[in-house]
Amino acid sequence: MATVIQHKIMLDLRSLAYSSNLEFIETTSERSGYPSHIKGAIIGFNNFEQAEKLAKDNNLDIEIFEKHDGWNLYYRTGNRAFEEFENHASDYGDNYEEFDNSWKEYDFYEQFIKPGLERFDNIDELRSFIDHKEHIFYEIDRITDEELVITVDGVFESVIEKHTMDFYHDTKTVVIGLINNNNE
Fold it and tell me: What predicted TM-score, i.e. pTM, was given to this entire model?
């Protein structure tokens, strides 16, 4: 009987995802990604308000799911989400830094370029250092209030959004989605 109910719930979620232009995924209860107690879920939201509205309208739960590269299923963490992910350089690791668009050229020069100028033995190393810093500041100057420039070991890595419904780093995707936990 439980499998018939689960099957109907998965079909309902698949239909809801399709009609809402979202993505239907299958999830597992196993932290290793191994298939067990498979349940459907919905991801692909533009923002948290969109997820909240669909959750409220359909009596669904907002939860965080994880998936490693190579897995077919997302892992149900059981952790509720109450807002979008707030992204920071610390999410990536120790050698990463973040910059928002409030940096001014003079302040950036004084803090990140000037102190390093004396450590080079030749013009090619100095030119490379300055080129990397110039690229970082170019990206800082281009981003919006809702974006961050991420660097690793003083070299530009990427531009990310400050708030997102999903996050990917180092073979792992973490995403906020909807699931039906009402029949458990």
Answer: 0.81
